[in-house]
Amino acid sequence: MSSRAKSSPTSRLKLFSKHLNSPSPTSTSTFLEKPFLELNTPFSTERSAHWEDEQGKIIRKSKFQEKIEEKTKEEATQTEQEQSERKQSAKMSKQAPHAALMIPGPIEFDDAVLESMSHYSESHVGQPFVNTFGEVLSNLRKLFQTTDPSAQPFILSGSGTLGWDQVAANLIEPGEEALVLHTGYFADSFADCLETYGAKATQIKAPIGDRPQLDEVEKALKEKKYKLVTVTHVDTSTGVLSELKALSELVHRVSPETLVIVDGVCSVGGEEIKFDEWGLDVVLTASQKAIGVPAGLSILMVSGRAIEVFKNRKTRPTSYFGSWKNWLPIMQNYEAKKASYFATPSPQLIHALHTSLNQILSKPLDQRFSDHKAASDKIKKAVSDLGLKQLATKRENQANTMTAIYLPDGVSPPDVLPSLMKKGIIFAGGLHKEIASKYIRFGHMGVSVTDSQRKDITKGIDALKESLSEVGYKA
Known about the structure:
The protein is α/β, with parallel strands linked by helices. It has two domains: 1-107 and 364-475, Alpha-Beta Complex (Aspartate Aminotransferase, domain 1), CATH 3.90.1150.10; 114-361, Type I PLP-dependent aspartate aminotransferase-like (Major domain) (Aspartate Aminotransferase, domain 2, 3-Layer(aba) Sandwich). Helix content is 40%, strand content 12%. The protein has helices spanning 3-6, 9-16, 63-74, 80-92, 111-116, 127-144, 161-170, 185-196, 214-223, 245-254, 304-311, 324-335, 347-361, 365-385, 413-422, 447-450, 456-470, and strands spanning 100-101, 152-157, 177-182, 200-205, 228-232, 234-235, 240-241, 259-263, 282-286, 297-302, 402-406, 425-426, 428-429, 439-443. The strands form four sheets. Strands 2-10-9-8-5-3-4 form a seven-stranded mixed β-sheet, sandwiched between helices. Strands 11-14-13 form a three-stranded antiparallel β-sheet, with helices on one face. It has a two-stranded parallel ribbon with strand order 1-12. Helix 8 links the parallel strand 3 (177-182) and strand 4 (200-205). Helix 7 (161-170) packs parallel to helix 8 (185-196) and helix 9 runs parallel beside helix 10 (245-254). The termini are far apart.
């Protein structure tokens, strides 16, 4: 057995996070003015039935976990009901039978989208692919609801995080100020990214489950000139939904030169966004969430105003791969269906995005947003009926693409996640470092919401009820 196979999850996490360690007091390294942010990602519990301490020793199992394991031993074979559900699932999809992935992304994918991934190999500068890429860029304008010809969609190979880098590298220069509105883990990371590129990030932090209030934002904008303000539309760590329209109106009124930057990784395709009407400057997202495409694409919509800010930089962009100096002409050429090259895109992912966007735009966007809200309302009612609370207590703060649920006192994610998986449902553990052991996350977007044949939402609710009952919780 290889040393890799013998290593524990904890040891692997330590290896992964070595690069985040601060320099020692005697270190000669001077390029860091302050230590990196600590790793703010608790070890995944979706596939682990236990936790380990810093020495790699298994933490004593709770009585709830012991009950689950006793029940598991009694269930040596699948029940007839489980076998029937798997057969039904196989009929509904060409995919191999699998547990429904109900986390806040990646999500379940439509068969046609996955089939697009198997497109034969083709040249990334050949006309057939260029035509497909051009149609995808045009369709993104429809998804973001913009008709402004000066606005520009971008698609780069990478994750949603690459969107942060593009903003930091192209729209703000070293020493300039950024105002970051904090609703969870991802604001900390966006601020860290901005500071990595030399910007000065000021955060307005709300209590867990809430969002910064407009009067706080107005006060901050009047005290200092900010090059841009960032907001996470749906923070995946807390399930908090930020209000964009009123925020953008405030920024344009109080500080009209400040750019409005939206992290829409967990919202685009599931939450309403009106790019032109709301006066947004950048909305960044990723392929694997409500857009419904496998991970690997960083997607942005950028306003004409932001493009002008980029063109008027005093210094060069601080990234090479992410520089719009390199990508802007490529995107413009692709959209005009002209072959162009800077770096190789992912043709198969572009084909998958082409299929997904065609599906999304085949129906009115209002209906799609309404479907996501209806599914969200159903889940949130079920959570309330179970006597449980959400991290976001106010309905206006609750996302329609996911729900972050506090577990009952004395119950932690490892007590219920393995049981949920046995029932064919995968939820996510907590992500916010201050309360990670107290809650779980239920993702509900894309085909799990819009495909009437799928029963993922109902199955997820029922599995949650049963798993809580198994650990002794009574609503």
